[in-house]
Here is the input.
Amino acid sequence: MRYFRVVALVFGKDFKDELRRKENMASSFLFALLSLVLFAFALDPTRVDLNQTGSGLLWLIILFAGSLFMGASFRKETENGTLFALLLSPCDRSAIYVGKFLVNLVFLVILEVLLLAMAFVLLNFRFQDSVIRLAVVWLAVTIGYAALGTLFAALIAQVRGGQVIYPILLFPILIPLFIAAATLTQDALSTGFSWSNQWLRLVGLFDILFFTASVFLFEYAVEE
Amino acid sequence: MALRRSIVVLWAVAAAANAVTLWLVFTYAPIEVQMGAVQKIFYYHVPSAIICYVLLFLSFLFSILFLWKDEPIYDTLAYAMTEVGWVFITVVLVTGPIWGRSAWGKWWVWEPRLTSFLVLWLMYSAYLLLRLFSRGDARSSKIAAVVAIIAFFDVPIVHKAIAWWGSIVHPKKVVLEPAMMWTFFVSMGAVFLLAAAFALTRTWIGIEESRRAEREVAR
Here is the structure.
């Protein structure tokens, strides 16, 4: 029970901080919107039907904007010297990770909902399948993304030049997840997919494997 | 000193084995009917691919040991294995397109095996970049270990995910005629020795570097 209290406290503190400062959320959302507009210019939606090919683009935008958001989740702790205090606290260290992970997850979901809404308006996305399928896919992919994104954010917060290497470390590892995300989103927008879809199973495997690994590795790797 | 001597011996054996391999490849092994002489790149392409998996597995293993036992030697070993492993991924990625250009007319196709190997190369390049950025920073060793572990977890996933698309250019099973098979076995051994020589030398360099760092701290 104590464990979940620590998770809730870390989550609450970061969530409140982000709501008050808004700078991370605002900058990553504007970045996402900007990318969407730039992609629209690059691909000319009057000639290319982005409803057929646009899901990869959406995930690309989420990848960039999300890493912008998550990359900052431990930086503010190191900048203010509070990471030390956080790690000194007499609790299971992985609780800190889980708290941070949940904050990132919540804000990524908000970012995705806003982005998807913009895509429907600006790129004429249309539904032919159920909303539930789309929501399940997006949530499942975001869990895996947030799990690794939070772990790497914690790791690079202590390295010189960390902001530069963060996306370079993170993106290659996410490739299978995002291939699955783009394929499943395309299916969810058009013909739908069955629940025993192999890409969906891959996303599930990715989530379980990397969330568990991150919880363990965080304990060992993050010091002072 | 013992390490240094065994490195010299290993290099000599590896050089001899590779000389024998080259002789076998160009004189003994027959020319393949369909692809012609360019098929001979196979004798270095395939062993390099196998060896790089072995080296990356070792890097994964030593990274876990380092996080677990906290002994600096495991960090040195993990770094050495990853760096040499990266070199062999690069060898595979360079020899592949040369073969591919003449065998199927294109340098590169977005095919499962090729794509997964490229992703592999990207992941371990990021690892080496992390090491470059944090040179001389003891804390970063643990971070690098985590990256090596996560990256290795991703290897089977990439392989599997992309394999679902089905392979166009890489056959599932290769049947070799005896002369080709013997040449392949010898080349496998030669590349293995070469990799061992590189890995051991790189480990020795790592040990020397950390010794020097210790001496500087002492002074």
